[in-house]
Amino acid sequence: MSELIGEDYLLSKSINKPIDSSHFFLSNNFEMYKFPDVVNSSYLKILSDLKSNKQFSSDSLAHFIDGAIMNHPILKSRIVEFDEEQHFTPARLSTIKHLKKILPDNYFSTVSNICNDKTYLNNHVLKKHRMKNKIENLPKSFSDFIEWLEQSDEKLSGYICEKNGFRFLGGRMAQRAYYDCLRDTAHLSEKNKDLESPLRFAKKSFEDIEKISFNKIENKRIKEIIVEILQTDYQLSIAST
């Protein structure tokens, strides 16, 4: 991305320009955003599906953002996320039906399709979470997935441990899905008035196009695919050089 749009418009730890709370308001508590009522209503449903006790602090999550575009003449200012395997969990899938009611489908269909790929779930997503069991049938809900997880003999690890707001086995998955939602909706907050909707790029999308693992794709081709995704999913045109 830095080669595509130039480092002057990009923030990211990878180019030694880290993001912090001075750039965006991104609290771990949705109630702090002053969202419109319809958005707050969606969060209550999301957190119910994610089995949350809704006990959050007001800590900033800005430093967890993968990257951000700032004041670009075409792309403007946006959060940019590169989603690897660990993001495509039953927890993330459970949030999509609520997010679709308040946001355009720029990437939700892609996310849903990946989350509903049982082979990818077993061989990549669960493996990324250091889990040894494989699921026979896609769970109908996140609660069903957690029930399956609790009945399994998985070794407790930081990948599936309890987290603040999600005090149960598998809580880390729910927390990540919730944090993804906060990045999805940050631009709807009156505290982020100059922020546009985020850009998300799934690692699997690049691999599906090229039929090889991501680390084997040449930079030139990565840039070309980014341009294609921007045009087809976001209706944003930018030249690749």
Q: Could you provide a short overview of the structure?
A:
It is built from 9 helices and 4 strands.
What's the helical proportion of residues? 25-40%
Strand order of the largest sheet: 1-2-3-4
> Largest beta sheet, briefly?
4 strands, mixed
The 3D shape can be described as globular
Question: What is the first-to-last residue Cα distance?
Answer: 11 Å
What's the β-strand tally?
A: 4
Percent of residues in beta strands: 5-15%
Low-confidence stretches: none
Class computed from helices, strands and strand pairing: alpha+beta
In total, the number of domains comes to: 1
Order of helices and strands: HEHEEHHHHHEHH
Tell me the Rg in angstroms.
18 Å
Average of pLDDT: 96
Count every helix, treating DSSP H or I runs of 4 or more residues as helices: 9
Write the layout of secondary structure elements.
Layout: H1 2-5, E1 10-11, H2 37-49, E2 67-72, E3 76-83, H3 90-99, H4 108-115, H5 118-128, H6 142-151, H7 171-185, E4 199-202, H8 203-210, H9 219-234
Parallel strand pairs: 3-4
Antiparallel strand pairs: 1-2, 2-3
Q: Would you mind describing this structure in some detail?
A:
With 241 residues, this protein is an alpha+beta fold. It has one domain (2-234). Helix content is 39%, strand content 8%. The chain has helices at 2-5, 37-49, 90-99, 108-115, 118-128, 142-151, 171-185, 203-210, 219-234, and strands at residues 10-11, 67-72, 76-83, 199-202. Strands 1-2-3-4 form a 4-stranded mixed sheet. Strand 2 and strand 3 form a beta hairpin. The longest helix has 16 residues, at 219-234. The radius of gyration is 18 Å and the shape is globular. The model has no long low-confidence stretch (mean pLDDT 96).
